[in-house]
Design brief:
Blueprint (H helix, E strand, L loop, with lengths): L9 H24 L18 E2 L6 E7 L4 H19 L4 E7 L3 H4 L6 H15 L1 H13 L11 H8 L7 H9 L4 H13 L7 E4 L2 E2 L5 H13 L1
Parallel strand pairs: 2-3
Antiparallel strand pairs: 1-3, 2-4, 4-5
Length: about 230
């Protein structure tokens, strides 16, 4: 890096310009990413028509935004959620509300928006029942492909549906083929955009963004909410 030397009067102007540029960059990052880690801002989400894991009257609400092409979402579901479910959800202390945020296919400029197709498929399972939503979501994560490639085609999504016990696969296929849940997915995505969700999985505990999806961080946020 070239450094300024001596006492050239242009140095002051350059330093001021650098500081202004840094401030503008910080503002731009804030606008794109939303609230910084540890923010105490509370976001109100419409959870009235969303899939719920746990008891509806649980005192703490976890809102989880996921993209089914997201490997970190799969990791959360496989590694971290089971312990949270045992400790908080199964005991009635918290409930988990799932909201779709299908953005990866668009971000990668893939020829087919299979992030949205996967979300539509999960919603088609939810149309049949809340339990089938959870079952299909699990199957979908097990069959997850590369995030940088199109894999969640309608054909593949229907094949995966055959592994969900109790799912009416004919109704599921019709729902998916006719894009019957596209509007619901669009509404979910709007909630994510309005909240300036920066990526997935994004986890909010009683409306406050948790700075990590790891079990320890989410547990700490739930424990704090239970004390309030």
């Amino acid at each position: 890096m070239t450094r300024l030397q001596g006492t050239n009067p242009n140095r002051t102007i350059l330093v001021i310009g650098t500081l202004l540029a840094a401030a503008l960059i910080a503002l731009a990052l804030f606008a794109v990413r939303g609230q910084p880690s540890g923010s105490t801002a509370v976001v109100n989400f419409d959870t009235s028509s969303q899939p719920v894991l746990g008891q509806s009257d649980a005192p703490v609400t976890l809102v989880v935004f996921e993209d089914f092409k997201c490997p970190n979402c799969k990791r959360f579901e496989d590694e971290f959620l089971p312990e949270l479910k045992t400790k908080y959800i199964d005991t009635g202390k918290a409930k988990l509300v799932s909201i779709n945020y299908p953005f990866l296919a668009q971000s990668a400029r893939l020829p087919t928006d299979d992030s949205k197709l996967a979300a539509q498929a999960v919603e088609c399972a939810f149309v049949q029942s809340n339990d089938l939503h959870e079952s299909y979501k699990s199957v979908l994560f097990r069959g997850q492909g590369n995030e940088s490639a199109v894999w969640a085609t309608k054909s593949r999504l229907k094949d995966l549906a055959a592994n969900v016990e109790g799912l009416d696969t004919a109704k599921f296929a019709t729902c998916l083929d006719n894009d019957e849940t596209a509007a619901a997915v669009d509404a979910d995505e709007k909630q994510a955009v309005d909240a300036k969700v920066a990526g997935t999985p994004a986890i909010y505990v009683n409306g406050k963004l948790v700075d990590s999806y790891a079990t320890a961080s989410v547990s700490a946020a739930i424990d704090a909410a239970l004390q309030n």
